[in-house]
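Page header: ASSEMBLY MODEL / two components / 498 residues total.
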Amino acid sequence: MRQITSTQNPQVKAWKKLQTRKYRQQSGQFLVEGHHLVEEALKQAGRVEELLLVEGQPVPAGSAGVALTQISPEVMKAIADTETPQGVAAICKMQEEATVLASGQRFLLLDAVQDPGNLGTMIRTADAAGLDGVILGEGCVDPYNPKVLRSAQGSHFHLPLWHQPLPEAMAALARRGVPVFGSALRKAVPFQQIQAQPGFALIMGNEGSGVSDALLDQTQSNLFIPLYGQSESLNVAIAAGILLYHLRG
Amino acid sequence: MRQITSTQNPQVKAWKKLQTRKYRQQSGQFLVEGHHLVEEALKQAGRVEELLLVEGQPVPAGSAGVALTQISPEVMKAIADTETPQGVAAICKMQEEATVLASGQRFLLLDAVQDPGNLGTMIRTADAAGLDGVILGEGCVDPYNPKVLRSAQGSHFHLPLWHQPLPEAMAALARRGVPVFGSALRKAVPFQQIQAQPGFALIMGNEGSGVSDALLDQTQSNLFIPLYGQSESLNVAIAAGILLYHLRG
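Prediction written out in full:
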């Protein structure tokens, strides 16, 4: 087993660079921290490239055959995003695989979602609702950002997630007869008027500006959630939860 | 108009203490920051005790008759919770008024909700769903915490919110024939089996342990949201959104 105790080790510097989107994209890797996320990553064969354990931490279940490096608490602190890391982390491989678009029945499409917590929570909710995939259009925050990973609580490893221009994905779904619903505050129907669907794609949009008009023009129909009180809007992740569970039935 | 430019002014020290729960409770006051929250506070007559404006900021609409103090950017920075405050803040009066419990039809009851973002988002969602009140049981994070206020986006000023032991509130609702639903992962019915209700109360619980068993034993029935994928749970605020809009119909 490899051991790294110095924060000056070149490997530590490389891991640390995974805190930036640029280097994550270059390397095709991202880092997850903590027992729960590492366990979820290990359940998906071939996803973990290297397991990093602070001395004294037990080897997690499912790590047979995975490269293991023992690191010092100082090294963990240097590479982790959290203030008090749990002592276990994993270097994971990005795996953006769009083939399910040709066969799946339920999808969440995201247009320029900016808040990491919202994105992570929507990935988690899409997983809970049994969707077949999450498609990230232009302008979304990086899904491999540590805050997104924490909010999603392991759902990155449960369903396919990939980047694709949304008009392209929508055209592919339309060819297969999967209805695409936008979400909007104007020129839209109350969601309760739409029945549960055997298959569907739902588009959720940017926190400030919503789904772009260019996309809303290409949907089967656009839904809104009535506001019965005095609030001006719902949080986008809450709206996604309400609509996904309604459409799923 | 009063002017305060020094962060050493005793009044500034008093405002600064509103960052702590203890002093908020002692004084019965809390501070909101930023244009949107201040405007929402001003819409509710008698709620703002003092408006604080950095020099050069326009006086917000609805502030006629409200005590106004001009402060320096340094004073604003000292009393604000955000890194880059917007230049307007308001000292507001807590107003916990439970009389709607005797007449309202729809309530959200919260048992030991700990995360400020979750609490704020649930208050915002309760407002959107047109509920008549939000009742905070034991162990909830302080609703006047700045993070809760930000997440709720002004809904604190849109619907009554108060602290009350939940068994007491549940007994009062039961006497009026308002059905109380718990949310739970075990010994519960899928929420889709329950019809929309003309009146209801929904209990949401702690992020880790859920609604306490003692409360679940006293409900009309307990609901769960089926998990169709591999995620182990939903975020509590997402679950609240799905259940509130379902029960409302």
